Amino acid sequence: MVGNLAVEAISLVKRFGDTVAVDNVSFSVPEGSVMGLLGPNGAGKTTTVRMLTTLSVPTSGTGKVAGHDVVKEPELVRRSMGLTGQAATVDELLTGRENIRLIGRLYGLPLAYLRRAADDLLEQFSLTEAADRIAKTYSGGMRRRLDLAVSLVAAPPVLFLDEPTTGLDPRSRVELWAILQELVRNGTTLLLTTQYLDEADTLADQIVVVDAGRVIASGTPTQLKDESGAARVVLTVSDDADLPRAAELLRRCADEVHVDSASRRLSAPASGLTEMTTIAQVFAESGIAVDDLGLQRPSLDDVFLHLTGHRAESDDGAPAGERGVEEALR
Ligand SMILES: Nc1ncnc2c1ncn2[C@@H]1O[C@H](COP(=O)(O)OP(=O)(O)O)[C@@H](O)[C@H]1O
Ligand SMILES: [Mg+2]
């Protein structure tokens, strides 16, 4: 099965009146891999996921999940996938265990099987102790884990996660990442949306960057960082007195040299290791003592800024995870 595509977006377009929420988006996700759909609030991530999970009909274009067309074969698509939406969808008045069993029953899974599956999932998501408490008493992190457990009860080969960690505290985020990595190790294909660059960097094999409904870049995290060309060579001289001469030397090798006297640090754009090696040689020959010399790769934050001219985290107030269920489920 290696090489098959688990998810394909084919020129997807979604218009709401005058708003083009998704504007000709195409990408593909090989089986067993993780794709991160990365973009700020309003970029069109949820709308894209909703079309691929049959919750919304594309204005034009289509998608495929496990080889099935989302427009022509929605039933088959639904049977191949699980979805965890942006807002928690668990029933607050049911216990964790009951939530899992309920959804399992809706999928038509036999009760004997479900008993065991529920136990296993509760265990896997560290919810065994809380299994018989109503979900209302759960913390945000526990709810997200229960949400995920519920979407996994039918063991779908493809899992869509819409901003799985938005609104979670840092510890819960890292815990959830570990769970997702375990799922992928066991063969699940993941398509997750996120506005967090570190999340895409940590989890995704491929990142598709969207902004205002359009794909503005795609590639592996490393490719995106390399393409942004924002790598810098950074060196620290041992002696303050050498700073002016060091700056002059560096200016001969690169443009836009930046000097920070307080830290005795100089930096300049460098495309890669070759350029850094040249600079290292020049300094070795100059006799200037250097404490430290290295290549600083850009963060995905730098990449996003480079691509869009603005930072990924939007400043429009509440994080998406705190919006109401209705809005998140639109
Ligand atoms: N049901 C809807 N009606 C009108 N506009 C919508 C609807 N759903 C989404 N939008 C608009 O489409 C754009 C993309 O929204 P969305 O897909 O939710 O982005 P994201 O999930 O990346 O934050 C936004 O401008 C949003 O306001
Ligand atoms: Mg969204």
Layout of secondary structure:
Layout: E1 5-16, E2 19-30, E3 34-38, H1 45-52, E4 60-65, E5 68-69, H2 74-80, E6 81-84, H3 96-106, H4 111-124, H5 140-151, E7 158-162, H6 170-185, E8 189-194, H7 197-203, E9 206-211, E10 214-219, H8 221-227, E11 232-237, H9 243-253, E12 258-260, E13 265-269, H10 273-286, E14 290-296, H11 300-308, H12 325-328
Parallel strand pairs: 3-8, 3-9, 6-7, 7-8
Antiparallel strand pairs: 1-2, 1-4, 4-5, 9-10, 11-13, 11-14, 12-13
Helix pairs in contact: 3-4, 3-5, 9-10
The structure holds adenosine-5'-diphosphate (ADP) and magnesium ion.
What are the key terms here?
330 residues, alpha/beta, Rossmann fold, Alpha-Beta Plaits, 2 domains, six-stranded mixed beta sheet, four-stranded antiparallel beta sheet, 14 strands, 36% helix, binds adenosine-5'-diphosphate, binds magnesium ion
Describe the structure.
With 330 residues, the protein is α/β, with parallel strands linked by helices. It folds into 2 domains: 5-226 and 308-328, Rossmann fold (3-Layer(aba) Sandwich); 231-297, Alpha-Beta Plaits (2-Layer Sandwich), CATH 3.30.70. It contains 12 helices and 14 strands. It has helices at residues 45-52, 74-80, 96-106, 111-124, 140-151, 170-185, 197-203, 221-227, 243-253, 273-286, 300-308, 325-328, and strands spanning 5-16, 19-30, 34-38, 60-65, 68-69, 81-84, 158-162, 189-194, 206-211, 214-219, 232-237, 258-260, 265-269, 290-296. Strands 6-7-8-3-9-10 form a 6-stranded mixed β-sheet, with helices on both faces. A 4-stranded antiparallel β-sheet has the order 2-1-4-5, covered by helices on one side. A 4-stranded antiparallel β-sheet has the order 12-13-11-14, covered by helices on one side. Strand 12 (258-260) and strand 13 form a beta hairpin. The longest helix has 16 residues, at 170-185. Adenosine-5'-diphosphate binds at residues 16, 19, 21, 39, 41-47, 320, 330.
